[in-house]
Design goal:
It contains no helices and 12 strands. The chain is an all-beta fold. It has one domain. Strands 1, 2, 3, 7, 8, 9 and 12 form a 7-stranded antiparallel beta sheet that branches. Strands 5-4-6 form a 3-stranded antiparallel beta sheet, with no helix packed on it. It has a two-stranded antiparallel sheet with strand order 10-11. It is globular, with a radius of gyration of 16 Å. The chain starts with a strand and ends with a strand.
C-alpha cells in the first residue's frame, strides 16, 4: 500500500488488489493477451510518470515513447485500486488501474497500464475494465 498527500487537504491511497479475481473485470490475472493492432507507449507525467498504452499517437507530444506492434504479447501483471479522500468533501473517488508486462519486442519487460486500450464499465457498483477486442484479445494456447 502506498499513499500520498494530494494538495493541502487530500490523500491518495493505492492498494495492490491483483489477487482479487473479482476486480479484474474482463481480464484474468497472469494471463497472456495479444495486441490486435499497433498501439503507442506514452509517459503520463501527471500521474507519477506512469507508462500507458494508447490507441492513437498524440500529435507533437513529448511523452510519446514508441510503438508497440500488432501481435505483441502482454501478460496481466498488477491491478491497483486508488482511493482519493478530501477533507472538504469526504471520499470522492476510487478507481482501478490494470497493468501488463510487455513480453515481446523493444519494450519487453516494461510494465504499462492498459486502461486506454480497454473498455471501462460498471459492475456491482465498481468500475472495471475488459479488453477492447479491436485492440487486445486473449492469446490462444
Amino acid at each position: 500500500m502506498t499513499w500520498a498527500i494530494v494538495g493541502l487537504y487530500g490523500l491518495d491511497i493505492t492498494i495492490d488488489v491483483s489477487s482479487d479475481n473479482d476486480l479484474w473485470g474482463g481480464y484474468d490475472y497472469q494471463e497472456e493477451y495479444t495486441l490486435e493492432r499497433d498501439v503507442f507507449l506514452m509517459l503520463l507525467r501527471y500521474d507519477e510518470n506512469r507508462l500507458t498504452l494508447v490507441p492513437k499517437r498524440p500529435s507533437q507530444d513529448t511523452s510519446y515513447k514508441g510503438v508497440i506492434r500488432k501481435g505483441t504479447r502482454l501478460q496481466t501483471y498488477k491491478l491497483e485500486r486508488h482511493f482519493v479522500y478530501s477533507l472538504f468533501i469526504g471520499g470522492y473517488g476510487t478507481g482501478l488501474i490494470p497493468y501488463v508486462k510487455i513480453l515481446d519486442g523493444e519494450f519487453a519487460g516494461t510494465i504499462v497500464s492498459i486502461e486506454d486500450i480497454s473498455i471501462f464499465y460498471k459492475e456491482d457498483g465498481i468500475f472495471k475494465y475488459r479488453p477492447e477486442e479491436l485492440l487486445i484479445s486473449r492469446s490462444t494456447p
